[in-house]
Write a structure and sequence with these properties.
9 strands, about 170 residues, DNA-binding, alpha+beta, 3-methyladenine DNA Glycosylase, Chain A, 4 helices
Length: about 170
DNA sequence: TTAGTGATATCC
DNA sequence: GATATCACTAAA
């Protein structure tokens, strides 16, 4: 198991998102327990022109993290009760990131963060340096398939139909 | 299909 | 200060 470093995340989100599927997300709890789960699904959000990307709404305190350096952890609350976790990718000042959409065991972005006990306290940290949250490569390379992104009907026909969701193929 | 929940942005 | 919106989930 090798922890992913800055060079892994320092690429376009359209490269990082498929590469993240099959990687192992690791979380050390306060009592020392280490949780691990393989990533089964990711989505890419790319730039201000991508109407599904939060940065398309403008640069605000909330979206500021998208402009930070790759590897930064972006966690936000959705529908008042669900924490969603992203990793920032690409060049600083170019807002883009990858949503960790599901694990092998816990399907659904909010189920995964609930299992891993991730909340806003991780927002602004980094997958490269955080002592209790990181992503590792154990050499496994799953077969992938793609699909459109979920829950972005508001983004218009073009962006809604980008095949920017990557899913580990079963079997 | 719908309720539940609260941060965020936008409009007074 | 008020309101509308939202990268979701569970129950029915």
């Amino acid at each position: 198991m090798v922890r992913l470093d800055g060079t892994f995340f320092h690429r376009d989100c359209l490269e990082v998102a498929p590469d993240l599927v099959g990687k192992v997300i690791c979380r050390r709890l306060p009592d020392g327990t280490i949780l691990q789960e393989r990533i089964a699904e990711t989505e890419a959000y790319r730039g201000t022109e991508d109407l599904a990307c939060h940065a398309s709404k403008g640069r605000t305190p909330r979206t500021e993290l998208l402009y930070r350096e790759s590897g930064v952890i972006y966690v936000y609350l959705c529908y008042g009760m669900h924490w969603l976790m992203n990793v920032i990718t690409g060049e600083p000042e170019q807002p883009q990131g990858v949503l960790i959409r599901a694990g092998e065991v816990h399907s659904g972005p909010a189920k995964l963060t609930r299992y891993l006990q991730i909340d806003r306290s991780f927002n602004g940290g980094s997958f490269v340096t955080h002592p209790d949250l990181w992503i590792a490569d154990d050499g496994f390379r799953p077969a992938l398939r793609t699909d459109v992104r979920v829950g972005i009907d508001y983004a218009g026909e073009y962006w809604k139909n980008r095949p920017w969701r990557w899913i580990a193929d079963k079997g």
